[in-house]
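Inputs:
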Amino acid sequence: MSPPEILVEMREVCTSLGGHWVHQNINLQVERGNLLALVGGSGAGKTTLLREMIGLQATTLGEVRLFGEGLNDGHRAARAARRRRVGFLFQQGALYSALTLFDNIAFPLREVGGLLEDEIRTLVLSKLELVELKPQHASLMPAQLSGGMIKRAALARALALEPELLLLDEPTAGLDPDRSAGFVELIRGLHASLGLTVVFVTHDLDTLSALANRVAVLAERRILAVGDLNGIRSVEHPFIQNFFRYRAAVNELPEE
Amino acid sequence: MPEQPPAERPMQTFQSPQIQFDGRQCVLTGDWILAALKPRLIRLRAWLLLHGKSTETWNLTQVRHIDTFGALILWRAWGQKPPDILLLGPQHESAFQRVRSVAGQVFPPERIDWLLPIVSIGNAALGLGSHLLDFARMLGMIVVEAARLFIEPRSIPLKEFSAALYKTGAQAMPISALVGFLIGIVLSYLSALQLRNFGADALIINILGVGIIRELGPVLVSILVAGRSGSAITAQLGVMRVTEEIDALAAMGVSVHQRLVWPKVLAMAIAMPLLVLWTSVAALAGGMLAAQMQLEIDWRFFMLSLPHVVPVQNLYIGAAKGVIFGVAIALIASHFGLRIRPNTESLSRNTTSSVVAAITAVILLDAVFAMLTRGIGVPLR
């Protein structure tokens, strides 16, 4: 068996924001097929780490490699092509408020250029179906959508170019348990059918246990532990023990 | 934990999509994904248009990867149906499945509303009505809040007032002085050229004095302040609406009008006449400089004769205009700010409207002023 492909590699990453260190010497690898959860306390820099993976935020020290290449390697076109292999779901959706849902999802497709309007229409329809939205929703403006629909629409846009790597920032935050379970199911299904690699930030233990096949715990400015959920839970560290104890009391985490 | 191993995808580079055609059978190889297809799209489309429907056998078993777009252009080339003989690996079926499942779907057609012209006139009228209603309501609230402050002086928002005074007044001083000074120079220079033709050099003092103090100063400052502070007020209220800060104030039982609108209106009423005075001084200084250089009118003579040729009523009119214009700008900016709905589109639209409406209102009010004060302060000989 060949060694697993590394899609994202962070080497000795240090980040300083506003004069204090958020990350120190972070090493993390995301392998193809991972459903990697980033967990950690509020303000531990999970979202920052996610943004650094595709260069939305610069690291202070250290190196990030995406698909085996440095973030700034190659010319403008090569960098843009590399970005297009990644989909990013922002926490608030970040749908363009001046465009309809259809135009939001069609936007990345139009940016590629060369596609016929008819093809774009079919591709948008297929993305809408993928995230279980209906064609008649396509003419709505983002301000008219509910929170759950915004997440779905934003996911459809992130998937428009069928990326290999999907980064999700708090995919289930702000959704009720029912919708959140549905959204998790959706992402699991996409992972299986599209062969996506997913990295997501979450606070929600239900999301974590239902979605992740690998967990990285971020606390005290470093990665405390990486492994599968059961392995992580048995790590003897006060933060990890607390994290799972408090959550388990509320959620009654099923013993696996 | 995943039930099935995810499909392999290319790492570094794509294999370019190829078609091998022997007259009867098409054998496709390589990656049929958007990024790989893009550079060859035009030639590929042309080829598929020629051979797509006439070829019966399609062998896709040697394709490495195919995405929805790759499946879609083949599907369209086949005429929206599978060809007679299609050899397809099981790992590629899902892409065609996705295309097929949306094949019959269409977006609901956009309805054309023939009544739209009439409806939009009606909507414009209703919109104007709702603006007027909102504006009147806000005015009423400000009066009520002002009355309440008399009963409850403890809740006078002094800090907000002082901040507004500083932002709209003190911080506008450098830019208004600069603009006033330059306009003064230009005005004086251009008038001087004309006046010299008639030998009426000394009249430059009358023209500049009355023109700047009574008319140009207040209007110039108002336009500057409408663009500078008016847009800032609207945007601030709008952002507070987007971030729910306005609701937070209301939830704590604090009146938005008392805490946010009232101090700004009062600050503008006080800052504007002072700014008008300041800018008029700067413009007169500019005019004086240009008169000295162009017409050789001594600046001491300019200073001494200014009070004689410009009746003092003009100064009062200028200051009164400052107060009225300032209040108008603050009210209009607050009105548009409070109407912003919590989305970015509404924010940008209302900020633009706020500045346009404020400048228009200032010029309208100026015309009214000119009519009402036509007998005051103009020396008639």
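Chain A touches chain B through 46 residues (CB under 8 Å). Flag for discussion at group meeting.
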